[in-house]
Amino acid sequence: MNIRILLLFFALCLPMLGQAQNKQMMFGDTSTRGVPFSKDPHVVKFNGRYLLYYSLPGKLDASKSIWTIGIAESHDLVNWKKVGEISPDPNAKYEANGLCAPGALVKDGKVHLFYQTYGNGPKDAICHAVSSDGIHFQRDATNPIFHPTGDWNCGRAIDAEVCEFKGRYFLYFATRDKDFEIQMQGVAVAPGDTDFSRGDWTLAVDSAILRPFYPWEGKCIEGASIAKKGDKLFMFYAGAYNNAPQQIGVAVSEDGLTWKRLSKEPFLRNGKKGEWNSSESGHPHIFTDNDGRTYLFYQGNNDNGKTWLITQQEVVWPNGKPVLKE
Description:
By secondary structure, the chain is mainly beta. It is 6% helix and 41% strand. It has one helix spanning 2-21, and strands at residues 39-46, 49-56, 68-74, 81-86, 99-107, 110-117, 126-131, 138-139, 158-165, 168-176, 183-191, 202-203, 221-229, 232-239, 247-253, 260-261, 280-288, 294-301, 309-316, 323-324.
């Protein structure tokens, strides 16, 4: 009798377990605007849990809407709970107008956060902060740590992504041309023993490493995120400005400096009319878990940016190239 009951239990529960495992992540922070509004996802695994960092706007009825960085935690990459928020430091004039677009990595038992200042036009730059718990951060005394120089850009740096590759750290960033019209990718490097302070970063290439080219990329390439596979780097990037629609492409590099697109077409398109992401599938983050599995986090909406949701899909690598898991 006990065996029959046990078999009946598993027969009833297994379908529900499958549904839970296949449940699609849909995260939207409603704390500031009363509607889901979360952008620019970045995930790390730290101290036995996943931490999601994301851009969070201020209230619409405020005299000045200040962007901050929200923090949520999860144990399954699907269900998320907000656990913190990083607001502008009142003693840091460089971020007084807001901060957003977080990128993070775990190094020496601490979370290093790279974020951009907001609302300063060509003067927006990349900043750095460090945390022992992943929630409370101490700013780098040398902030802002990086902005580009040269005639090919306007001096702005946003959307930081930092990764280690072949003994150095690479900082990928988006900037614009002198006319503030075309958004493109640049890269800086720091030595392997860096503390990520301003003096360690140098511009690696005195030109854009990836500019919009194909029609679907419009006038913008931004939001670069890196997956390291063997001796290659794969860059997942956003093509076109928000809701144009923005879609996601992939490029590959063997040195971190020279990049080649994998396709003329988007890796991940915006949704069809009526779907939750019909306005865009944008600002990717490719997260590599401790077991080597990779997940593509991205933002989307279907109302031209009145709301924003974050989701994720697993990416598999047959023949060494990324494919969305069915």
